[in-house]
Each structure stands twice: as structure tokens, then as C-alpha cells.
Design goal:
Blueprint: E1 4-12, H1 16-24, H2 29-32, E2 36-45, E3 48-57, E4 60-71, E5 76-83, E6 88-101, E7 104-115, H3 120-146, H4 148-152, E8 155-164, H5 168-176, H6 181-184, E9 188-197, E10 200-208, E11 214-224, E12 228-235, E13 240-252, E14 255-266, H7 271-275, H8 281-309
Helix pairs in contact: 5-8
Length: about 300
């Protein structure tokens, strides 16, 4: 079997321990790495952990399970895919963070991998995907770490909750069946939903704003019946550089607490061109919060009616 070994590296203007901590916290990866849609920490035991990752590779959404070994003293994280997705037969590697000075570090990303049946065409596909994703991940890591403090002021999260006198299964079904949203939701003009892999969706839709304008968005969604749907928006409005979110459905004594959660990073370069001369970060934050919250609450209200009618 042919095992390919490749290495990518980048220099980051940040202390090595800070870079290590960022890589160790996998739940933040959708905010850091463009290809990453969602990460779940499945098991954790001391320095060993098992994680499940959903990400895009060459424009296709894939998911896999990895085991990681964390070594904060050596600033190394070793990973190995436990369950791979074809055409990958095996995949693993190491993050190595090397101090170059008090406020500078080198990050080396090593990969080793094999293709199913040693297929040369598949190996080339993996070569391209690993190279593209590694460059993307390292560039995003550099950007995220170096601008972490600046981004804190323009990154925020919020949620809306609607209480439903019905079942979590029915509320989940309404959010999951996004292919029917153009019939069920007044603010959705058209919708395109693909689910080639069960539980991994690509959702494109045109939504109407209050002023009548129509905006096209694209998201990848990971579904966990009947409790949770995580998503990452990859076609973003001009006021955002990041938008991730979760729909959660929690059984309560009164029925179901259905919640929509958003995490957003504002695109400060576009604030005045969109909201007018003199518009501030606070104005943009209020505008984005209101727009997203309005659509989320409308969707949850229709999901509530749907679920309560099915009791």
C-alpha cells in the first residue's frame, strides 16, 4: 500500500502556547477553519480524546471520526482518523507548534494517508484535498490567532427560544425538512436541499427581506434526530465574515423548548457602505441581530404551529 507523507507550515505572530490552546479546543474549529462545518467531542480521557468532524473537501461535504492525543508540554497534537470516508483508506498526522520567540511561532501540519485500493486517481484527489485544506486551515489559523483580540469585539452569540406544546420529533421534522420551507415559510422564496449522505445536508435558499429584496444563502447542516441541527453558512451577507448556528429541541415538562442559536463575526469593512456613513459596530450588531432573530423566530413560530397541530 502506498502511504503519502506531506507537510505544510506557517509562521504566526502569536505565542506558541496560545496557538496550541486554540487547536486543542475543537468545538471552536467551525469558527476558525473554513472547511469545518461542525465538530463533536465524543469521548475524553486525560490526554486522549475521540472527535467527530464534518467538513468540506474539494466542495463535497464529508465526515469522519478521529482520535487525538494532546501533549501540552511538547505543544503537539497527534490525530488519526478512526472512521474514514472513501476514497480515503487511512489518514493521520500531527500538529507541531514551535516557539520562534516570545510572540511568534511556527505551526507545522503533518499528514500521512492512503487511498482505497491504492487507486492513483483517488490518491491524486486526496493529495489535492489535503493540500487545499491544509493551506486553508493554516492561513485561517494564522488570521484567527493574530486578530483574536480584534475579533472579540465584533464576534457575538445570541439565541431565541419558543416553547412548544408538542413533541421534539415534530419540531425537529419541521426544521429538518427545509426542502418544504418555500411552502411553509413566507420569508423563503425558493429552496434547494441536498442530502446525499444521511444527516449531512447542503441547503441553498433565497430569502425575502422586509424591504422586498431577495438574498441567496448557502449552508451546510449536520442533523442529530431529534435533538439538534448544527449549521455553517458559507455564502454570507456582506455584513458578516462568519455565521454558524444550532437548532436545539429540548423536552420539558411543558413540551419542547425549541431554540435557535447564532454566532456571528461582523465584517467591519462593509458597515458604512451598507448602513450608511457614520454607522458603527454597534449599529451593525443590532442590524444583524435583528435580521437573524426575526427570521429565526418566524421559523420557530411556524414550527410551533406545525408541531402543535400534529399532537
Amino acid at each position: 500500500m502506498t502511504t503519502r507523507e506531506v507537510e505544510h507550515e506557517i509562521t504566526i505572530a502569536a505565542p506558541a502556547p496560545a496557538v496550541y490552546r486554540l487547536l486543542a479546543e475543537v468545538t471552536n474549529w467551525p469558527r476558525i477553519f473554513p472547511p469545518t462545518i461542525h465538530v463533536d467531542r465524543v469521548e475524553h480521557d486525560g490526554s486522549q480524546e475521540r472527535i467527530r468532524i464534518w467538513a468540506t473537501a474539494n466542495g463535497e461535504a464529508k465526515n469522519w471520526t478521529s482520535r487525538r492525543e494532546l501533549d501540552p508540554e511538547a505543544l503537539r497534537i497527534t490525530f488519526r482518523q478512526e472512521v474514514t470516508a472513501p476514497p480515503v483508506a487511512a489518514m493521520g498526522g500531527t500538529w507541531i507548534i514551535e516557539p520562534l520567540g516570545e510572540n511568534e511561532s511556527r505551526v507545522r501540519l503533518l499528514h500521512d494517508y492512503r487511498a482505497v485500493d491504492d487507486d492513483p486517481h483517488d490518491l491524486l484527489w486526496i493529495d489535492q484535498a489535503v493540500d487545499k485544506n491544509s493551506r486553508s486551515e493554516l492561513a485561517a489559523l494564522k488570521k484567527n490567532v493574530e486578530f483574536a483580540h480584534a475579533a472579540e469585539a465584533v464576534t457575538f452569540s445570541f439565541e431565541d427560544t419558543v416553547h412548544v406544546d408538542g413533541s421534539a420529533k415534530d419540531v425537529f421534522a419541521f426544521i429538518n425538512e427545509a426542502n418544504l420551507w418555500s411552502e411553509r415559510l413566507p420569508h423563503v422564496a425558493t429552496v434547494r436541499l441536498e442530502e446525499d449522505t444521511v444527516g449531512l445536508q447542503t441547503l441553498e435558499m433565497d430569502t425575502r427581506a422586509k424591504d422586498g429584496s431577495v438574498h441567496t444563502t448557502k449552508s451546510y447542516r449536520v442533523t442529530f434526530p431529534h435533538q439538534h441541527i448544527a449549521y455553517k453558512q458559507v455564502t454570507l451577507p456582506a455584513l458578516m465574515t462568519l455565521h454558524t448556528g444550532h437548532w436545539t429541541f429540548q423536552d420539558t415538562d411543558q413540551g419542547v423548548a425549541a431554540t435557535s442559536q447564532h454566532t456571528v463575526t461582523l465584517n467591519t469593512d462593509n458597515i458604512e457602505s451598507i448602513l450608511g456613513c457614520g454607522a458603527t459596530v454597534a449599529d451593525a450588531r443590532e442590524y444583524v441581530h435583528t435580521a437573524l432573530s426575526t427570521n429565526s423566530r418566524a421559523t420557530l413560530t411556524h414550527a410551533k404551529a406545525f408541531a402543535e397541530n400534529r399532537r
